[in-house]
Each structure stands twice: as C-alpha cells, then as structure tokens.
TrEMBL record:
The keyword Acetylation does not apply. The chain crosses the membrane at residues 91-111, 131-151, 174-195, 207-227, 263-286, 306-325. It is a multi-pass membrane protein. This is Cystinosin homolog. It is found in: Cytoplasmic vesicle, Phagosome; Lysosome membrane. Its main location: cytoplasm. The keyword Membrane applies.
C-alpha cells in the first residue's frame, strides 16, 4: 500500500455566511481510502487549506471529486483530482524505461535504410509505394500532434469533449512525427539522385492517395462551414494514418516476393521496427498489470493491434530475408516489370 498527500486550498473574495462541509468522494472506493473524507470550512475563514492523505488499497485509476453542503457559496463542479494507484514503483520505472527505449529505437529505425541507399548508391529494391504511404502517414500524424498540442482553440474543443482528460500528446510524440517526416523526405530525395532501376510509384498507390486526399478535403470543407469541429478534422487525419499503417508494408512485401530477393531493403530497419514494436506492446502490458487496467489494451485495441500487426510484418520480412530469399535470384536487379 502507498500513501499520497494532497493539499486542497480555497480562497474567498467575500466572507462566508455559514460553515461549509466539503465531502471528498472516490470514483472507486475499493482502490483508495481518503483521510479525512470530509472537511469543514468555517465561515470566519478568508482562506482555507487542508492536507488530505490518500491510501492506495489496490491498483487502478481513480477520480476524487467533491460535494459541498452549500454549492451556492462554493462551486466545485469542475474540481477533481486524478489518482493512480500502482502495484509496484519498480514496474512503473521499468515501464518508463521501456517506453524511452522503444521511442529511441523507432526513431533510429529510419537510418539503416538511408545508409543502405548511400552505401549502394542505389534504391533498387526499396518500394516507392511504401515511401509515399509513409510520408503521407507521418505528415498526418505530425499534423494531428502539433494541432492538438499547440492550437488553443483545438485544445479547448478537446477539453470540452473530454473535461477530465489530459491532452494525449507529449513533446516526444511531436518530435517523433516531425523527425519521421524529415528522414522520409531525405530518403525520397535519395530516390532521385541514386540509381533506381526504372522504379516508380504504382497506379494503385496513387489511387489510394487520391482517395485519402478527397476524404480529407471533404472533412476540411465541413469544418470550414462549421458542420464539424477542427478537432474532428485532426481525428480524421489520425484515422487515415492508422489505415496507412495497416497497408504500408504490403507493397514492399509483395515486391520482395516478386523479385525473390530483399536486396535493397534494409534488414536493420526491420530489426529496429520489430524491437520497437515488441517493447511498445510490452509497455502496454506492464502498465495494464501495474494499474490493473486491462481495458487500456482490450477496451481500446487500436494501438495494441497496430503494434502487433507491425510485429507480424517484421517477422515476415525476416523470413523473407534470412530463409526464403537468402540467395537473390536474377530478378533482384530488374524491378521495372513490377511497377
């Protein structure tokens, strides 16, 4: 069991006409115990402070809200405190460490492919559809993160819709997304200056991009005319990013199959992506266990499902690289017929 201490402070612009009783309530009483659970503010007080001790009984997430005996004298409608009770602080430290490791690994995962292209002075074997989908996906992800983190009006819309929630974007999310856009653009520049063997973006990928573009333009217009909020536009950008994450590996995997080779496709990229995916899922499991919050995985399966899906594709790429196509066929250096 773990103790938490909170200081509650009230200030009054005019004297109180009578004593006020403030009762503190936990959304789940079996997770924490509040001591004292009731505070009395005497009418003579111009300011008031009280130290409240919270005892963790079991792991979980709890909101502490307040009821007052005279709400016309003291309005605490929007006042709340979020408390997280954990099984073990060691697990929490491990989870944080795992989170930073997979953040670094995923950020580094872009560079093996860039190095492979530079070393070979060729991008033959790197699928251009994959690059285009990656650029679109990470651009929309960066737009979502930056908009929700920096634009006040969108932040207000989020808090109005989720009054007791924090903004689900951290500075490292912004760095990762913007960094991904920049390094993907550099990789695309390499496709113009290095030998590419007649490769180009396929008609299928272009059609998919057009569909996404039309969808976002329609949503954008509905926001301009006030039908939807700008927050909804950012959510739609994130939905397109999720869809791209599900399909972006398919062109590269199919290209490797047609060429019977993974030459030009960096296995270092896959190893980093696989490591990051495994650690991402591991962090979710650690947090779910530590806070007894399995709904964070099974109640909202998007992040877990995408991480698991990426891991499966990474395993498939490893099988292609080390088992199926260890010896490149004669088709490995002729990709023009697959465009």
């Amino acid at each position: 069991m773990k103790y938490y201490n909170y200081l509650f402070f009230f200030g009054f612009s005019t004297p109180l006409s009578e004593n006020i009783s403030v009762k503190l309530n936990a959304s789940y009483g079996d997770i924490i115990r509040i001591d004292p659970s009731e505070i009395v503010i005497f009418k003579e007080a111009k300011t008031f402070s009280a130290r409240v001790q919270v005892l963790g009984l079991s792991p979980g997430h709890v909101e502490i809200t307040a009821n007052v005996s005279h709400p016309n004298l003291l309005d605490v409608t929007d006042a709340y405190v979020k408390v997280t009770s954990e099984r073990s602080s060691d697990i929490a430290i491990l989870s944080t460490t795992v989170g930073w490791i997979y953040f670094v690994v995923w950020s580094v995962s872009f560079y093996p492919q860039m190095y492979e292209n530079w070393k070979r002075k060729s991008v033959v074997g790197l699928n251009f559809d994959f690059l285009l989908l990656n650029l679109t996906g990470f651009s929309l992800y960066a737009l979502f993160n930056c908009g929700l983190y920096w634009i006040p009006s969108i932040k207000d819309q989020y808090f109005e819709r989720h009054p007791h929630s924090a903004i689900p974007v951290l500075p490292n999310d912004i760095f990762f997304a913007v960094h991904a856009v920049v390094v993907t653009l550099i990789t695309i520049v390499q496709c113009f200056i290095y030998e590419r063997g007649g490769q180009s973006v396929s008609i299928t990928a272009r059609c998919i991009q057009v569909i996404f573009f039309i969808f976002l333009i329609i949503v954008l217009l509905t926001c301009v005319f006030g039908v939807l909020l700008w927050l909804d536009f950012l959510y739609c950008c994130s939905y397109v990013k999720l869809a791209i994450t599900l399909i972006k590996y398919v062109p590269q995997a199919f290209m490797n199959y047609r060429r019977k080779s993974t030459t030009g496709w960096s296995i270092g990229n896959i190893l980093c992506d696989f490591t990051g995916g495994v650690l991402s899922v591991l962090q979710m499991v650690l947090d779910a266990y530590n806070y007894d919050d399995w709904t964070s995985i099974f109640g909202s399966p998007t992040k877990f499902g995408l991480g698991f899906f990426s891991i499966l594709f990474d395993i498939f790429f490893m099988v292609q690289h080390w088992i199926l196509y260890r010896t490149p066929s004669s088709k490995a250096y002729d990709v023009s017929s697959y465009m």
